[in-house]
Amino acid sequence: MRHFLTLKDFTKEEILEIIEIGLNIKKNLKSNIYNKELENQTLGMIFEKSSTRTRVSFETGMFQLGGHALFLSNRDIHLGRGEPVRDTARVISSMTDMVMIRTFEHSMIEEFASYSKVPVINGLTDSFHPVQLLADYMTLVEHNASENIICAYIGDGNNMAHSWMILAAKLGFELRIATPKGYEVDENILQIALDLAKQSGAKIITTNDPKIAVKGASVVTTDTWTSMGQEDEKEQRIKIFKGFMVDDTMMQLAKQNALFLHCLPAYRGLEVSESVFEKHSKVVFNEAENRLHAQKGLMVWLDKHR
Ligand code: CP
Ligand code: NVA
User: Fold this and answer.
1) Looking at residue 302, what is its pLDDT?
2) Which of the four, 156, 182, 276, 290, has the lowest number of CB atoms within 10 Å?
3) Residue of 263, 280, 293, 295 with catalytic role
4) Ligand 1 within 6 A of 57 CB?
5) Strand, coil or helix: what is 141?
6) Sign of the CA dihedral running 291, 68, 106, 199
7) 45 φ/ψ sector (left φ>0, alpha ψ -120 to 50, else beta)
8) Which of 3, 102, 237, 293 is the catalytic position?
């Protein structure tokens, strides 16, 4: 049995296989052919943070695959009142076929997985957001932008930056991450990515200068400057991140026809300008829709590997 906690535990071939399954299921869905691989199965979805895309995509995805999803907010289950993670894991995994968790510390999901009888999927932790990267890469494939990637990530050294690093390191492409001083990516995760990059040929560069990162990039991406749980730092972050907005001037430094991606929710006038966002909105909303298709690919893959 496999869990999907970070992309670290998956080979390049496995990542591409998950995306391939997702793309096939997407193609079928567009022709009104429903894949029912997960008939009678149940997905438990534990949310300790807010969500629009993750909830809707997993719930809809599980339904379309013939199964059922349970939305379990920590406000409503005993986990939020102090029932230990290891007990919650043993109970929920005894009744469901798969579990998706969105939480704060990555160690919580690791502990849950170590006690779980069923595959556990990371729906975002403070450290990683791997399901988002499946959708992002699927979007690059669909837009014929998955060869010779030079990706510029501009903004906070957060869960999205970390997940981009692991994806680049696994697939072997060039990633340049520009963050303000003091908001760099986690040193340990960077080291893991750099070690993996030695095998794959990936090039991972970190800088405090967005211009260096974006010059000649084929993909430009960013994320909110204030992640969930950091709301108290918002005002301070807006001041510090000045100069890191992806705007038209910045996009002009990238390759002509460079793609812009954003995991959403997007804050116009902060990490991205209104103009860049709207010019690229068709791709960005396809990226959001691809959460549904990529995660269906993932759930089918995890089910096959138990
Ligand atoms: N991108 C993403 O995970 O969105 P939600 O927070 O709305 O789930
Ligand atoms: N970095 C953001 C991603 C939201 C999908 C957060 O953790 O809030």
Assistant:
1) 98
2) 182
3) 263
4) no
5) helix
6) negative
7) beta
8) 102
3-state secondary structure (DSSP) of residue 158: coil
**Distance separating alpha carbons of residues 246 and 277, to the nearest angstrom:** 9
Q: Cα dist. 53→60, 136, 301 in Å?
A: 10, 13, 21
With 0-12 CB in 10 A as exposed, 13-18 as middle and 19+ as buried, what is 245?
buried
| Residue to substitute in 106, 186, 263, 271 for testing ligand 2 pocket (most ligand atoms within 8 angstroms of CB) | 263
Q: Distance from the CA of 199 to the center of ligand 1, in angstroms?
A: 31
Q: Residue whose CA is closest, atom 7 of ligand 2?
A: 227
55 is catalytic: no
- Domains delineated in the chain: 7-129+291-304 (3.40.50.1370), 132-286 (3.40.50.1370)
Residue 223 known to be catalytic: yes
Q: What is the pLDDT along the chain (306 residues), one digit of tens a residue?
A: 999 999 999 999 999 999 999 999 999 999 999 999 999 999 999 999 999 999 999 999 999 999 999 999 999 999 999 999 999 999 999 999 999 999 999 999 999 999 999 999 999 999 999 999 999 999 999 999 999 999 999 999 999 999 999 999 999 999 999 999 999 999 999 999 999 999 999 999 999 999 999 999 999 999 999 999 999 999 999 999 999 999 999 999 999 999 999 999 999 999 999 999 999 999 999 999 999 999 999 999 999 999
Hey, whose CA ends up nearest to atom 3 of ligand 2?
227
